[in-house]
Write a structure and sequence with these properties.
The structure is a single chain. This protein has 83 residues and is an alpha+beta fold. 30% of the residues lie in helices and 37% in strands. Helix 1 runs parallel beside helix 2. It is globular, with a radius of gyration of 13 Å.
Length: 83
Amino acid sequence: METKQIIIKSIETGEKEYVAYFTDEFMQASYCVIFKDSILGAVSLNRFIDMIKTFFDIKKLAVFISEEKFEIKSKALLDVLIK
């Protein structure tokens, strides 16, 4: 069984924000969510992960953080990334 992945990258928008994206080869499309380093950002990321798992019926989904260096301050967001 192939492990699918969601990638998280830092984006520069004036505020500290991140983009998490999932690419589906079959549909030739990428799906993403942009979220902030906050409790609500953690909720948004968690819902995005659940949505991708459910919609695409994925059993194995890994979340990877881009090799870019960035700092996450929200404990709630760290908890979502660590689980």
